[in-house]
Design a protein that fits this description.
By secondary structure, this protein is an alpha/beta fold. About 50% of the residues lie in helices and about 10% in strands. The strands form 3 sheets. It has a 5-stranded parallel sheet, with helices on both faces. The structure holds adenosine-5'-triphosphate and magnesium ion. Adenosine-5'-triphosphate (ATP) binds next to helix 5 and helix 13.
C-alpha cells in the first residue's frame, strides 16, 4: 500500500477502484491523468505562472491560461469586489440602497459565515462612491475598541466637509482630516457624535464589517449608542454594520431602543438561480463549460452558500483542466467535494476526527449536519431553537436535542456555556462545523447521485 492509499477514504476496500475513484486518487496526489500515463517520476509538478502572474512561456499551453483565469473566476478565499463577478442579490441590494438613500436609516446586515456579507458590502460601497458618498470601510477585529475605531474613521473624513472649516480653509486645502481635531484623550460616544454632526457638503457612509468579531462589550455598546445618538439628530452620516448574528439584539447588545432606528436585513441563502449565476459568471471568464449535471451537483451541495459554491466550482474546474478537458462534469464536482472534505479534515484535531468518524459510523451524520448548520447560522453559540430553525422535522429535532445533550455531557465536540443570552452550545473547534457540513453535503451526493461510491466512503 503506497502512502497515498493511507489518505484515501476507500483505502480498506479490497475491490477494484472505479474510473471515478482512480481519477480522484491521482488528482489528490497532484498528478493529472495525462501525466500519469508517463513513467512515474518523469514529470515533476511545477508552478504554472511566475509570482508576477506571468505564465511560464515554456509551459504556456491553453490549459495554463485557463488555470490562471480560474483564479479570478472563482475566489473562495476572498470576497467578491468586481461587480461583474457578483451574482444575484438584486432584491437585497435594492432594499439596502432604499433604506440608505430614501429612508436615511442606519442599517445592520447579518447572516451566516460565508453567506456573502462582505461581498455585498464591497459592491455596495462602489455604488455609493459612484453616487458621491464618502465611504469609510472599517473591518473590525477581536480587539476593536471604540476610541481606536473612531480615530480610523475620522482619519478618512477630510476637514473640507467640516462646517467649521470648509473646502477653502487652509486645513481643508491641506487635506487635513477630522482626526486632527481629536485630542489625546479617549474619544467617547459624545465626542464622536459631536464631530460627525458637523459634517456638511457630502454624505458619509461608515461601513463596519465583521462586527461580530469584536469581543469588547464596551465597543459594541458604544457603537449602538452612537447609532442611537446619530439617528436622534439630523446628521449626514449613516452607519452600515455587518456581522454574524441570529438577530439584531445579539449584534447590538443591550440597547433595545436602537431597534426603532435601524433597518435590519438578513442575507439569505442563495437561490439555485443565484448559485447558477456564480457558476456561469466564472464560465465567461475562464472559457470553461460546466455541464448541467455539474451545475446541479454544485447547487445541491453548496446548500445556498456562495462560499461552498465558489469552492466547489473552482475545485471541479481544476479537476477537469488537470484531466485535459474544457468541460466540467458531475464526477468532477464529486471529486472536488472529496478533496474539500479531506482538506477540511486536515484542519481539525485528530481527537475530533476520531470522534466524528465514530459518530458517522453510528448513523449520526444528519444530526451532526443540523448542529453544524445551527453553529454556522449563529457564528458560534447556538441553542435548541437555532437547530429547529435549520431542521424543521419533529423527529430529527428530538434526535438533535438528545444528541447535543449527550455530546456536551461527554465533552465530545460540543461544549456548553453561557453566551450572555442564556445557556447555549458551541463546537469546541471552530473549523469542525464546516467540515461536518461538507460531510453532510457529500452524504447527499452519495445518496442521490452515486450510490456505487457510498459503500467505499465510510
Ligand atoms: N454575490 C456573490 N457572487 C459571487 N460570489 C459570492 C457572492 N457572495 C459571496 N460570494 C463568494 O462567497 C465567499 C464568501 O463571501 P464573503 O466573504 O462575502 O462572505 P461573508 O458573509 O462576509 O463571510 P464571513 O462571515 O466569513 O465574513 C467568497 O468566496 C465570495 O467569493
Ligand atoms: Mg465577511
Amino acid at each position: 500500500m503506497s502512502w497515498i492509499d493511507g489518505l484515501l477514504p476507500w483505502r480498506k476496500s479490497t475491490r477494484a477502484r472505479t474510473a471515478s475513484e482512480e481519477k480522484y486518487l491521482y488528482h489528490t496526489a497532484g498528478v493529472s491523468l495525462s501525466e500519469r500515463s508517463q513513467e512515474d517520476g518523469e514529470t515533476f509538478p511545477r508552478f504554472h505562472a511566475t509570482a508576477g502572474d506571468q505564465l511560464d512561456p515554456k509551459r504556456a499551453d491553453r490549459f495554463a491560461l485557463i488555470r490562471s483565469r480560474l483564479r479570478n473566476a472563482y475566489t473562495p478565499a476572498q470576497p467578491v469586489t468586481d461587480r461583474r463577478m457578483f451574482a444575484g442579490r438584486t432584491k437585497l441590494m435594492t432594499t439596502l440602497i432604499r433604506s440608505i438613500e430614501d429612508q436615511r436609516l442606519h442599517t445592520v446586515i447579518y447572516g451566516e459565515r460565508g453567506i456573502g456579507k462582505t461581498s455585498l458590502l464591497q459592491v455596495l460601497a462602489k455604488s455609493a462612491e459612484e453616487a458621491r458618498y464618502l465611504v469609510v470601510y472599517v473591518t473590525c477585529g477581536a480587539r476593536s475598541e471604540f476610541d481606536e475605531t473612531f480615530r480610523a474613521i475620522a482619519a478618512r473624513i477630510p476637514l473640507m466637509f467640516h462646517s467649521g472649516y470648509g473646502p477653502t480653509s487652509r486645513e481643508g486645502e491641506r487635506g487635513d482630516t477630522l482626526l486632527s481635531l481629536l485630542g489625546p484623550e479617549q474619544v467617547g460616544v459624545r465626542g464622536a457624535s459631536d464631530a460627525l454632526a458637523r459634517i456638511e457638503g457630502t454624505r458619509v457612509l461608515v461601513i463596519l464589517d465583521e462586527f461580530d468579531r469584536a469581543e469588547s462589550e464596551d465597543f459594541r455598546r458604544g457603537i449602538a449608542e452612537l447609532l442611537k445618538t446619530l439617528s436622534d439628530q439630523s446628521v449626514r452620516v449613516q452607519m452600515l454594520i455587518a456581522g454574524v448574528a441570529a438577530n439584531l439584539t445579539e449584534l447590538i447588545a443591550n440597547v433595545p431602543s436602537i431597534q426603532r432606528n435601524v433597518s435590519a436585513l438578513r442575507v439569505p441563502k442563495m437561490t439555485p438561480a443565484e448559485v447558477r449565476s456564480i457558476v456561469k459568471n466564472g464560465e465567461t471568464i475562464s472559457d470553461l463549460h460546466f455541464e448541467e449535471p455539474a451545475i446541479q451537483a454544485i447547487i445541491a451541495r453548496c446548500m445556498g452558500f456562495p462560499y461552498l459554491a465558489t469552492l466547489l466550482s473552482h475545485r471541479s474546474a481544476l479537476v477537469a483542466v488537470d484531466d485535459g478537458r474544457l468541460t466540467v462534469n458531475g464526477d468532477d464536482v464529486g471529486i472536488a467535494t472529496e478533496e474539500a472534505v479531506e482538506e477540511f479534515k486536515g484542519r481539525i484535531s485528530r481527537r475530533s476526527q476520531l470522534q466524528i468518524d465514530g459518530l458517522v459510523r453510528r448513523g449520526q451524520l444528519p444530526v451532526l449536519g443540523a448542529l453544524a448548520g445551527a453553529a454556522q447560522s449563529t457564528g458560534g453559540w447556538f441553542n435548541v431553537e437555532d437547530i429547529t430553525s435549520i431542521h424543521a422535522e419533529a423527529s430529527s429535532i428530538h434526535d438533535a436535542q438528545a444528541t447535543i445533550e449527550s455530546l456536551a455531557k461527554n465533552q465530545v465536540l460540543i461544549e456548553v456555556g453561557d453566551d450572555g443570552f442564556g445557556q447555549g452550545y458551541r463546537f469546541m473547534e471552530p473549523t469542525v462545523p464546516v467540515y461536518l457540513w461538507l460531510l453532510a453535503a457529500r452524504g447527499q451526493y452519495f445518496d442521490h447521485q452515486h450510490p456505487a461510491l457510498e459503500s467505499v466512503a465510510g
